[in-house]
Design brief:
Strand content: 15-25%
Helix content: 25-40%
Largest sheet: 6 strands, mixed
Strand order of the largest sheet: 1-2-4-3-5-6
Distance between the termini: 35 Å
Number of helices: 15
Radius of gyration: 25 Å
């Protein structure tokens, strides 16, 4: 009880550097603390331990002029944590953010040299006409101060708004889906060598092999294959002893599972556990990608290539769609709305893609220019057939002509949004939040949720 330490009427400021523990690193005792502090708050189990200090402070400063400033993990201002923590602070405790340091790299002098990506958030139970954001062009450098009208929970200028999970896209674009989940114990999956060995025993089965990609295979150009038996007939498979053996192993694995849903899948041992393969050539996006890359490595794959569940798919090879998704505009939105897996980007369909504000009524000429520049990105990549997407998008190794192709694509995409260029990533994010509000207003008027 903080009031047992000092009565709040004697305080002007609360300053702190709460412990940095994400949900996966919290001890049993710390998880119990979170349950106690966030009792009854839906979804609070995903919050960082730091968040408890925010709620305790918000409760403590109600009705007072006390100002609070906390050094924190930057993940409480990204992804799904925003819609849980800040909705609570804004709606129930009328918190207003007065100043914020955007993400910077922080390390201490203690043994072990802990290094984390941090933010600093200053807030109170009253509004202020003097608000400042400290922006870092380099997370290891010094910030520059910008005066703003309001600071939203993503620590950019904008209304006190936040994106929440949406099951369908905000705009009229194709849906993004998970790839297919094998749930096969690995019996239907093969490395290059395993495939060669299998075919040496049963060459007749070659017609059922398809290239298979998870996120790692997509990014690193790793050859991997699967037995894809969706259209195989019993007559075709009857004489394939090795294939039947693999299918039998899948059946036994699923039948012996302690999960009822997996037991039911034993009725379909030839199939992946969940089949969501696009019927057309498609855009493929890895669910997790290195934070060091400027762009998530996104590609267009042939419909014959089977996408696994560590890949998101959009059932389209449309160059305009591809161009916008791989643009700096979309990457800027991704960096504030998607979560993190350790320090890597963990892309969110429901938060990022489904809430992304696409250009409003771009002209045919502007769309055609995006298509042209998107194709140029694809063609430029093709000049380096031995390089993986990881190689091509390594910030130190990215070929100069690919850099230029992306710059041209970015200018084309930006023109679809507005004639004036965007000078910083934060300017892009602020613009996108304004556009998000425009899209959202008529939906809310129809009684739909954010």
């Amino acid at each position: 009880n903080w009031e047992e330490v000092v009565p709040k009427e004697e305080l002007s400021f609360i300053l702190g550097n709460p412990p940095f523990y994400g949900k996966q690193y919290q001890t049993v005792e710390q998880k119990e603390d979170m349950v106690k502090i966030f009792h009854g708050v839906s979804g609070a189990g995903v919050l960082d331990y730091v968040a408890a200090w925010y709620l305790k402070a918000a409760i403590f400063i109600r009705g007072s002029l006390i100002k609070v400033g906390f050094v924190s993990t930057n993940s409480i201002t990204q992804g799904e944590q925003v819609g849980i923590l800040w909705k609570l602070l804004f709606s129930d405790y009328l918190v207003k953010i007065h100043f914020a340091h955007q993400t910077f790299n922080w390390s201490n002098e203690a043994r072990g040299k802990a290094a984390v990506h941090c933010v600093i958030v200053g807030f109170a139970n009253f509004d202020s006409s003097s608000k400042f954001i400290f922006e870092y062009e380099n997370i290891n450098g010094e910030p520059h101060q910008v005066r703003v009208k309001n600071i939203n929970p993503y620590l950019v200028e904008g209304r006190d708004n936040f994106v929440q999970k949406r099951t369908k896209p905000l705009c009229d674009v194709p849906e993004m889906n998970y790839g297919s989940m094998p749930n096969d114990g690995g019996f239907l999956l093969f490395s290059e060598n395993e495939k060669v060995d299998f075919l040496s025993k049963e060459p007749e089965s070659e017609k059922f092999f398809r290239q298979f990609v998870m996120g790692e295979e997509l990014i690193n150009k790793i050859p991997r294959y699967c037995l894809w038996l969706e259209s195989a007939s019993p007559v075709e498979l009857k004489g394939l002893i090795e294939v039947r053996s693999r299918v039998e192993s899948v059946y036994q694995l699923r039948k012996s599972s302690t999960r009822a849903a997996t037991n039911k899948l034993a009725d379909y041992p030839m199939r992946f556990g969940e089949v969501r393969q696009p019927k057309t050539d498609y855009i493929a996006l890895p669910r997790v990608s290195s934070v060091n890359r400027k762009f998530i490595p996104i590609d267009i794959l042939r419909k014959e290539v089977i996408a696994g569940d560590k890949v998101y798919t959009i059932s389209s090879s449309d160059r305009y769609l591809f161009g916008v998704v791989i643009s700096t505009m979309h990457m800027a939105w991704m960096r504030v709305t998607s979560g993190r897996l350790k320090s890597d980007y963990s892309y969110s369909t429901q938060l990022t893609y489904n809430n992304f504000p696409w250009p409003k009524n771009p002209s045919d000429n502007n769309k055609a220019l995006v298509e042209e520049k998107a194709q140029k990105v694809i063609d430029t990549r093709a000049k380096y057939p031995d390089s993986s997407l990881a190689d091509l998008y390594d910030p130190l190794l990215m070929p100069a002509d690919l850099v230029r192709a992306h710059q041209e694509l970015d200018r084309a995409v930006d023109q679809c949004y507005r004639p004036q260029p965007f000078t910083t990533e934060m300017a892009r994010v602020e613009y996108l939040f304004e556009l998000y509000e425009e899209y959202l207003t008529p939906l809310l008027g129809k009684g739909r949720k954010k």
